[in-house]
Specification:
Blueprint: E1 11-13, E2 23-33, E3 40-50, E4 54-56, H1 58-66, H2 75-90, E5 94-104, E6 107-116
């Protein structure tokens, strides 16, 4: 195989540091293992962030997400771990990771974790006519 899972996240310089803008990434193929049963858990991850100086590089993000495939983790723990690690390398103005886990035993789980830089405030929402 030419690529393999990796915990290493790469970044590149934000091309528009003077502007707040949102990057939205949808990852519909996340898997990890249930730490109680060892059965696979499937989720769609939604990463929304306002970059500061750095953006996450997508191939490294794909390999990072892949690295959880054989790890046991509770939904709440893995979502917060990923947010912490992504925020640690990109230092965003704002970042939200939403993990929508597929049904297991008749229960769907959605976990939303957020990071906000101490000196950042969102701009006011603009309503167009």
């Amino acid at each position: 195989m030419s690529t393999s899972p990796s915990k290493s996240l790469e970044t590149f310089d934000n091309p528009q540091t003077g502007r707040d803008y949102t990057i939205r990434i949808r990852m519909p193929e996340f898997t990890c293992l249930c730490p109680k049963t060892g059965q696979p858990d499937f989720a769609t991850l939604y990463l929304d962030y306002v970059p500061d100086k750095l953006c996450v590089e997508l191939k490294s993000l794909k390999l990072y997400i892949w690295s959880f495939r054989d790890e046991g983790a509770f939904h709440e723990a893995v979502t917060n771990q990923m947010l912490d690690e992504l925020a640690a390398v990109t230092h965003p103005r704002f970042m939200r990771l939403t993990a929508e886990f597929m049904v297991r035993g008749g229960i769907y789980t959605t976990v939303v974790a957020e990071h906000k830089a101490a000196n950042w405030a969102p701009s006011h929402k603009i309503e167009l006519p």
